[in-house]
Specification:
Elements (H helix, E strand, L loop, with lengths): L1 E4 L5 H5 L7 H5 L3 H9 L5 E6 L5 E9 L11 E8 L14 H15 L11
Antiparallel strand pairs: 1-2, 2-3, 3-4
């Protein structure tokens, strides 16, 4: 498994929330693409998890907290983390460490940007 930044090659898949097989996602239009284009200069971070065959199985997106629905300062907020789990479409990538790897990669990215990262309580 490896974690990468969003690339041109994977944008359409990311815009479809990894559900490129879903007719409902296609019918939803380009709302996520428009939001991402709006947010790209505001600190949006996107990472993808690829399995050993370079198939995308998970994603995380995060923004400065000032651009989220939460209150705070100098923090980042996870808007979405998703590891594909359906048997339909891409397949089931859950329970393989992708979620944890995505959070760790996002935490490192945010620290490298000189900010903090808010995470839910971990048990």
């Amino acid at each position: 498994m490896k974690i990468i930044n969003l690339t041109e090659e994977h944008k359409e898949l990311y815009y479809a929330c990894l559900e490129d097989w879903s007719d409902e996602m296609k019918e939803a239009g380009n709302h996520k693409e428009c939001w991402c284009n709006k947010m790209k200069d505001s600190g949006l971070g996107v990472k993808l998890a690829l399995d050993d065959n370079d198939k995308v199985g998970g994603m995380i997106q995060y923004t400065p907290i000032e651009h989220s629905q939460a209150d705070g300062k100098d923090l980042y907020f996870i808007n979405c983390i998703w590891v594909h789990g359906y048997k339909k479409g891409r397949g089931n990538f859950q329970k393989k460490g992708m979620g944890k790897a995505l959070i760790e990669a996002a935490e490192k990215d945010v620290k490298d940007r000189g900010s903090n990262f808010t995470t839910p309580c971990r048990t």
